[in-house]
Each structure stands twice: as C-alpha cells, then as structure tokens.
Amino acid sequence: MQRANKWWRETEDTYLKKNYKRITVADLAKQLGRSKRATRTRLEKLGCSMANLKRNIERFWLPEELDIVAKNLNKPIDGIKELLPGKSWIGIYHKARELGRKKKEHFGYHFDVHSRKQISVHSVSVAEHRIIFEQKLGRKLYRAEQVS
Predict the structure, then answer these.
(1) Are 123 and 137 within one domain?
(2) Is 38 helix (H, G, I), strand (E, B) or coil?
(3) What is the pLDDT of residues 38-62, one digit of tens each?
(4) Average pLDDT of the chain?
(5) What DSSP letter does each residue of 43-84 carry, written as one string?
(6) DSSP letter string, 5-19
C-alpha cells in the first residue's frame, strides 16, 4: 500500500534513524508503506548518511580499479570496461575524465544527447537542422521557433 503526499510522523522518523544501518532502503520503504525515493529523501533530511555503510562500499572505486583506469586512459572506454566488468560505461567514462582523459576533439561538429548534429559556427554550437531551415526559409529562425 503506497501512500502519496503524507506527512512523516515522529515515530517513522525514529524508526528510520534506529534501523537505516541494518535494513535496506527498499525494505524500510515497504515496512512504512512509502516509496523508496521518499524514504531515501527522508533519511537524507534526517542526516542519515548511507555512503559509508558496508553494503554501499561496493558502489565506490577501489584503489586497484582506479589504477586500471589510470593505466588505460588512452584505451577506448569499452576496452577499459572489459577490465572492470562491475562498472558501468558512463561511470568509467566520468572517472577517466576525472583522472585526466582528454575529451575527443570535434572536427567542426558533434552529436548532442538527442542525436542531433551540432555544428560549430563562430565558436557556438548550432543544430545543423536549424541552419538548413534558415537557408530554405531565407531568414534567421527565432530563438524559440521549433523546427523538425
């Protein structure tokens, strides 16, 4: 039974503070009839840090894993991922950037998160489809004007 928009009672807060170290957030949420997200948010507001709990340590980078990433900065991320099967591609990418991996040079264009080609025009990235529409229309597009 999930409850929506309910105030937290003092008894629930006390229960969370007493048990968050030994019971997972999912189980606490189930016992209190709350969502995992609401329970985690409440724990954070109560100042309960779960980062250093033994069950969460595996989420962090071990010194050996950092060495593997540091020694293979020039390899493709997929190659490093083969050496670190427990880590995600994006996690390895961000850790490699943090350790000094250079961003790939863009040759006048790149693709954004929506897979749109972005072209560099006067040091500003502009979506290629907007440039094409401006040429077809014979005028500049308004900033908020949507084209597809």
Answers:
(1) yes
(2) helix
(3) 998 999 899 888 877 766 655 678 8
(4) 85
(5) HHHTT---TTSGGGGGGSPPHHHHHHHHHTTTS-HHHHHHH-
(6) S-PPPHHHHHHHHHH
Query: φ and ψ at 40, to 5 degrees?
Result: -65, -45
State whether residue 4 is helix, strand or coil: coil
Domain count for the chain: 3
State the residue range of the domain holding 148. 107-148
The answer to the question of residue 15 being in a domain is yes
Using CB atoms within 10 Å of the CB of residue 38, give its burial: 0 to 12 exposed, 13 to 18 middle, 19+ buried.
middle
The whole-angstrom separation of Cα 38 and Cα 122 is 46
Cβ atoms within 10 Å, residue 81? 17
